[in-house]
Amino acid sequence: MPWWWNKKKADRPSLSITPRGDESIASKVDLGALAPPLADYLATACALQQALAARLSILSGGAWGSEDADDLGLASGRAMDRYRRLRELLEDYVEDVATALAGPRERLATHLNRMESARWYEGVGTAYVVTGFTRDFWHRLAEGFDPEVTATLQGILADTGDEDLMAKVLERFLAVDDRYSSRLSLWCRRLVGDTMLICREGLSEASMAAADAEVRLEPVLTDVVALHTQRLDRLGLTA
């Protein structure tokens, strides 16, 4: 029976690891031990995509040019598409979606509020970093579920061009005056700590209470930070 037929009153899918060979350090980590119950995974992922969609929409409204406004508006739509698809899955595992999202939304808002900036381009930098970093993390965390669940979740989380849209906005901005590069580079480095905290709150509470939690988590974060560095390298920024 397909996993999505297991409704809210049925047992959740058992956790297992999707084989990935030697393609990353994190492939050797027991991600099943780090992953939360599927309903919790979906709720935190939903809250994150909803928040990103809202912030990108605001950034689009405050854009300095029509091309930037259009690109950020499209990126906002991609995040909202993910939110809708994740929410549809969440409906099968909880009695009330709004209640399930309340806790994750409140915790996420605490972190995102610390990432606020009065400078528009730093706001775009925040959206770019948080989108990519958390996508990579939740993509790996999905490997802690049954392979069919993993494939579905990773398909939803796949980059559909929104990272490229945000990168182009930042590239156009930096092309106007490269003096902003050092400021934006510093800002993006500052974001990593809070973004990691967002990721940690998506993990199983039981796994993080274990004595070896940090040892098991470190390879996953190492993988994700490496991809984050590549993302900034594209813009000529230092991670």
Tally of domains: 1
State which percent range the strand residues make up. under 5%
Number of strands: 0
The CATH topology corresponds to Ferritin
Classification by helices and strands: mainly alpha
Q: How would you name the CATH homologous superfamily? A: Ferritin, core subunit, four-helix bundle
Distance between the termini: 45 Å
Order of helices and strands: HHHHHHHHHH
CATH architecture: Up-down Bundle
Mean pLDDT: 86
Defining key terms:
mainly alpha, disordered N terminus, single chain, 70% helix, 239 residues, Ferritin
Describe the structure.
70% of the residues lie in helices and 0% in strands. The longest helix has 25 residues, at 66-90. It has one domain (26-234): Ferritin, core subunit, four-helix bundle (Ferritin), CATH 1.20.1260.10. The chain has helices at residues 31-34, 38-61, 66-90, 97-114, 120-141, 147-157, 162-176, 180-200, 205-209, 213-234. It is mostly helical and 239 residues long. Helix 5 crosses helix 10.
